[in-house]
Amino acid sequence: MGKFTSWFKERTTKLSDSQTEKSGSAVGDTQAKEESTNEQNHDENRPPTKLEQAKQILTQVVAKLPGSHKPLYRRYWFWAGLGVSGGVAAVCYGVWSIDQTLPNKTELSAVVREQTLTIKAADGTILQQQGEATREQLKLEEIPDKFKKAFIASEDRRFYKHDGVDAQGIVRAVLNNLRSQNVVEGGSTITQQLARILFLKQERTIWRKLKEARLAEKIEDQLSKDQILERYLNLVYLGSGAYGIADAAWVYFSKPVHELTLGEMAAIAALPPAPNRFSPQVNLASAQQRRNLVLQRMYEDGYITKIEKDIAVSEKLAVRPSQPKRWQVEAPYFISYIQKELPKYVSPEVLNAGGLTVETSLNLSWQKMAEEAVDKTLRNQGSWENFKQAALVAIDPRTGAIKAMVGGKDFSKNQFNRVTQAQRQPGSTFKGFVYATAIATGKNPYDGYEDAPLIVDGYEPKNFSENFYGWMNMRDALTKSINIIAVKVLMDIGFEPTIKLAHDMGIKSELKPMYSLALGSNEVNLLELTSAYGSFATQGLHVEPHGITRILNRQGQVIWRDNFQPKRALDAESAAIMTWMLRNVVNAGTGGAAQLNDRPVAGKTGTTDEARDLWFIGFIPQLVTGVWLGNDDNKPTAGSSSTAAYTWREFMEKATEGMPVEKFPERPKLEGRKGTIKAQRIKAKRIVNPPAPSNNENSDGQSQQVDSNNSQGRSSRRRRYRRTNYQQQEQQQEQTPRRRRRRYREQQAVDDSSSQRSYRRRYRSYESASSSDFSSSQSRRRRRQYSNSSTPVIPRVRYTPSASSSSSSTPASSWRERLKPSSSQ
Questions:
Q1: Can you tell me the mean pLDDT for 471-496?
Q2: Among 440, 617, 422, 421, which residue's Cα sits nearest to residue 529?
Q3: From start to end residue, where is composition biased (Low complexity) (predicted)?
């Protein structure tokens, strides 16, 4: 009972609380309704916003439209509006899509076609063009006014009135094409044609026409009318391989544009619609008919008078065809070198896109002089000295710029470039690096070495003359090109310093550490050898040889520029001493044929075994030039390095005309010099110094120089010595080859008939060779000097193990020994 009473009290309390809450909420709702009513009254009194006004207007308009009682999707005006808006969106999207495929604004200023390559000489002369390139581009002011008006009358009569696309022209072309049920007329403006030439292909599609129209609008925004017209006249294809009006004037009439008559101008202006069909070379009647139509349009547009038109119409086209100038190629070996160098400086993507203009360092006048010098040598000396190829390269040693390059006899028959691709033994020209290393280690050029028989680690160097000259300083040894002393100098300074210096000076080919390195047994090419000698001319500084100075893209912007900096390869004092020593080679040694009358020359000759390679590398302070003569199949020649020096002089005499004379630096003091290179003397395993020849042989060798005028006695002793030597060689186990026996018979015949004029030339050649490449013009003077010298000239007797035990019977070496590379000069 107590529990029930308590539950009843709690229930009563809860009910009273809920009633109180309900009464409170009712009062709150009443107050909220009153407040909202007051706010609505306030909003009604406030003026409507613009958005609200727009909604009200739209509601009123929709209410007045037909079918207002229908749902929105059933009203026809809804679908019409949706279609129009969708069409506008589609057009905008199409324009956007086209723009994505078009070049950007910076590319619209292109001045050359795609897939072209133009290579120019240093003076701007075009050396070669590839692709659809224009040989001669003209400025607008260089083009006759009537020539410009002829193209405007023929191709775009409203050129100055539209903004790239001529709507009237398009409508006219469409009507004419529909009327004829064929494509007989195009509505493209000059601007559209320029866009197609520069950026599009020639296919006939709607998509191409849309891109063409959009490009024309962009070009009109970017360029002026004059700029557009100038580019068009220089790029338009006009048939027969002619691109641009200048090329067409040459191809059809063999004259420049300013010499064309009005009728000829109109005939060229009539070509763009169908260059092959309207070509005067193909169909003269059609060309004249089309020309007359252009003249009529020019008269109608007021560009010419009726009299001018009648005279031009009555004029008969006098066609004088010529080959397109862009087919002409200058300096083909140099061009092939440039084309191989291009990938080093631009990416493959840029090369594939084309449109490049390559500016080079080639001096075109020097190039022609070099070609003439090479042709003259091959034509004159080549036939009777038995060499069929020659190469020449000239470099500015201060910049490394290649000024002339002749890679062979005839590029049309053989494209092998003997300047850059032929790897040949340099012979004695490599001695320049050996002696330069010795001077850089601190040696004095007057330090002496003995020219005597030498065998080091089984290697036996031999002099070219097969004689020994006793003690001699390094300067005279270089002047006379003594092989044995060059090897001894190399032994004193080491392989590594010599190879490193040669590489620093510009030799790129591999050089192997061997004793024959001093005599040029490692193969190099003419370009690197000539460039390395240029380091002497620049007092030890080397600049990388190159032929490209600038590369321009289609817009004429420079995308690469040469910036080769000189690097120190040899200290200045050593370079000056070496230049002084190399000057003596030209003044009193083997390079006498290279002397110039008005300036000093320094250089070095080189001859390999059996005169297979004939070299001369010479320089003045402003120019270094290298010459090589020989045969591609490596056959021996009958010449000497004096012929290479003569070729060098033939070129340099003309190239230096008008060039200021510069002197070489003075020779520095030789005393107290400190070396800049550390010598690494070669530790030979075995060195053998064979004894000197017997007294009889010595006296016989000395008697050969007693009287230079006693030619009869001297020749008889020489014949006797040669015959004895030849008989000894025939008794060897290995027989002499047929070719070598024939050469010895010829030598005997020369000696026996030295008085005959037909063999006099060969006798002089032999005498030149026996005096270590002395020039033929100085050989007699050299023999007189040796006759008066206190140092006897000892005939060459080859060392064998039995020679030390028996001096009376010294066996001669086999023919294989005589063909060793060590006999190179």
A1: 97
A2: 617
A3: 724-735, 766-778, 800-814
User: The domain spanning residue 455 has which CATH number?
Assistant: 3.40.710.10
* Contact between 482 and 463 (Cβ < 8 Å): yes
- Render pLDDT for 75-97 as a digit per residue (tens, 0 to 9): 665 667 667 777 766 666 555 56
Residues 441 and 577 in one domain: yes
Cβ neighbours, 10 Å, residue 666: 8
* Residue 60 resides in a domain: no
Q: Are 605 and 366 in contact (CB under 8 A)?
A: no
Q: In which band, very low, low, confident or very high, does the pLDDT at 751 lie, cut at 50, 70 and 90?
A: very low
428 is catalytic: yes
Q: Which domain holds residue 291?
A: 136-314
365 class by beta-carbon count within 10 Å (0-12 exposed, 13-18 middle, 19+ buried):
middle
Tell me, yes or no, whether 201 lies in a domain.
Answer: yes
Cβ partners under 8 Å of residue 687, min gap 6: 454, 455, 456, 457
Q: Are 173 and 166 in contact (CB under 8 A)?
A: no
* Domain count within the chain: 2
Residue 453 domain-assigned (yes or no): yes
In a domain, 411, yes or no: no
Give CA–CA dist 325/188, Å, rounded.
29
Q: What is the CATH number of the domain that holds 252?
A: 1.10.3810.10
Q: Which of 217-226, 519-528, 671-680, 752-761 has the weakest average pLDDT?
A: 752-761
**Domain C-terminal end among 257, 286, 314:** 314
Phi/psi for 186 (5° steps) reads -105, 150
DSSP 685-742: S-EE-PPPPPHHHHHHHHHTTS-TT-HHHHHHHHHHHHHHHHHHHHTSSSPPPHHHHH
Q: In this structure, are strands 602-607 and 613-620 parallel, antiparallel, or unpaired?
A: antiparallel
d(CA 145, CA 233): 12
136, 154, 155, 521: which is the annotated catalytic residue? Answer: 155
Choosing from 336, 361, 428, 824, the catalytic residue is: 428
Spatial separation of the C-alpha atoms in residues 277 and 289, rounded to whole Å: 12
C-alpha 574/C-alpha 201 separation (Å) is: 62
Task: State pTM to two decimals.
Answer: 0.72
Cα separations in angstroms, 11 against 18, 19, 457: 11, 13, 130
First-residue to last-residue Cα distance in the chain: 144
Do residues 429 and 520 touch, judged by C-beta distance below 8 A? Answer: yes
